[in-house]
Amino acid sequence: MEVSRSHKKKQITHDAEATTSEARKPQTNDGSNLNSLGETKKKKPRTKAVLVQPVEGRTYADLLKEIKAKVNPTTTGVDIKSIKQTKNGGVLLEMGHKTGDSSVFTEAVKSATANIGTVKALIPTTTIEIRDIDGVTSVDDIREALLRDLKQTVEIRQMEDDDYAAQAHSFLLAGYHTTANTMGFALFELATHPNLQTRLQKEIISILNKHGGEVTHDSLGEMTYLDMVISETLRKYPILPFLDRRTLRDYKIPGTNIVLEKGTSVFIPLLGLHNDPKYFPSPNEFNPERFTLENRKSIPNYAYMPFGEGPRKCIGMRFGLMKVKTGLVHLLSKFEVRPCQQTMIPLVVDKSGMMMTTEDSMPLTFNRIKT
């Protein structure tokens, strides 16, 4: 099980009974309970819940409309604490802690949504990912779910030499080549578009002067045009030209008779999406203006995703972007970049590699800026 905070998501474990195991309470080095050292922390009790999943062709709104029209919680003896939308478009009905027997309410929900949804009363150890549940899940809930799933799924084994070698290769591939290649492509485009380079250099020098010449997290955050240049670089040259995923269950593609069976490998062509004129007019043109705050709003979801999307998007995204920005700032604050005789224009991309790179080297000329 994964506990993720992306898009305000978490995993929540619904259990009808609160656990009071001392083993799950935080302890000091001598084994005493932390709560006993200061103010007693009241354990957050868990709630009962009913989950309604929509059948194909139905939505969260359809379910909620029928439930509100046909189910009266008061007459069924249920206190509804909250109504939330699940990641898959279902309705999660959480009941207050004073709720007793909820079977009548559950049957009423089943009757109301008989033709448009499936109803499940959540039982102990049932986990479900939902949106916007900050403050609902206690630390104990998460800890217990993690420990339970680890015991069930993790096979502990001794690491071997090949494992260490594979990790080192991953660090180099994911942490070095991605950053270096992105910087290289950005410098090439700036070298061949001197007007864009001049605008970026003015921004960099101006903001560095404001911050006493220091390259800091705050100063980088103020360089909006730098962010636009890097975003456009990653659009035109996504470092990984495709994403690969595997289906966890059978999935019927809406509007077709095609079913992706569980375990099917799915490849998502980022290079094709990023260069599709439907989403990015004149895709071969290097145009950072596509990524102004206003223009970003017109880019459809999942048309631009150089780092992937969802809970499995690149874990090093922020670190990688910070490295690229830092490198470009140090270079462009001191040098102007120009093509040389050996620079190949246009670039020829290597079509055989897993990572976006050129068939040959990318020689450029660096001239120190006169200060």
Mean pLDDT, nearest integer? 79
Kindly report the spatial arrangement of strands forming the biggest sheet. Answer: 3-4-2-5
Count, helices: 10
Question: Could you name the CATH class of the largest domain?
Answer: Mainly Alpha
Order of helices and strands: EEHEEHEEHHHHHEEEEHHHEE
Give the name of the CATH superfamily of the largest domain: Cytochrome P450
- Whole-number tally of structural domains: 2
Q: What is the first-to-last residue Cα distance?
A: 56 Å
Report helical residue fraction: 25-40%
- Structural category is alpha+beta
Keywords:
single chain, alpha+beta, Alpha-Beta Plaits, Cytochrome p450, 2 domains, four-stranded antiparallel beta sheet, elongated
Summarize the structure.
Keywords: Endoplasmic reticulum, Heme, Iron, Membrane, Metal-binding, Microsome, Monooxygenase, Oxidoreductase. By secondary structure, the chain is an alpha+beta fold.
List the helices and strands and how they pair.
Blueprint: E1 9-14, E2 49-54, H1 60-70, E3 80-85, E4 91-95, H2 103-112, E5 117-121, E6 126-131, H3 139-153, H4 161-192, H5 194-210, H6 217-221, H7 224-236, E7 242-246, E8 251-252, E9 259-260, E10 265-269, H8 270-274, H9 293-296, H10 317-332, E11 335-339, E12 364-368
Antiparallel strand pairs: 1-6, 2-4, 2-5, 3-4, 7-10, 8-9, 11-12
Helix pairs in contact: 4-7, 4-10
Would you mind describing this structure in some detail?
The protein is α+β, with helices and mostly antiparallel strands. The chain has two domains: 6-19 and 46-153, ACT domain (Alpha-Beta Plaits), CATH 3.30.70.260; 170-368, Cytochrome p450 (Orthogonal Bundle). It contains ten helices and twelve strands. The chain has helices at 60-70, 103-112, 139-153, 161-192, 194-210, 217-221, 224-236, 270-274, 293-296, 317-332; strands spanning 9-14, 49-54, 80-85, 91-95, 117-121, 126-131, 242-246, 251-252, 259-260, 265-269, 335-339, 364-368. It has a four-stranded antiparallel sheet, with helices on one face. A two-stranded antiparallel ribbon has the order 1-6. Strand 3 and strand 4 (91-95) form a beta hairpin. Helix 4 (161-192) packs across helix 7 (224-236) and helix 4 (161-192) packs across helix 10 (317-332). The radius of gyration is 27 Å and the shape is elongated. Mean pLDDT is 79; it is low at 1-45 and 124-137. It is found in: Endoplasmic reticulum membrane; Microsome membrane. Residues 28-38 have a biased composition (Polar residues). Its main location: endoplasmic reticulum. It comes from Timema poppense.
